[in-house]
Amino acid sequence: MADATNRGTGPPAGAGSGGNFADRGGGPKNFRGRRRTEGVVTPNQVTVTRVAAAFAAVGLFTFFGNALAADIAAVALTIAAIALDGVDGHLARRRGMATPLGAQLDILGDRVVENLFFTFFAVAGLISLWLPILFFVRGTAIDFLRGLAGRAGRSGFGNRSMQETWWGRALVTSRGSRAAYAILKCVCFCYLGLLVPVGRWHASWLDADVRYSLLLTGQILAGAAGVFCIARAVPVVWEGRRYLELAEVERKIPARAAAAIEGIR
Question: pTM of this prediction?
Answer without folding.
Answer: 0.72
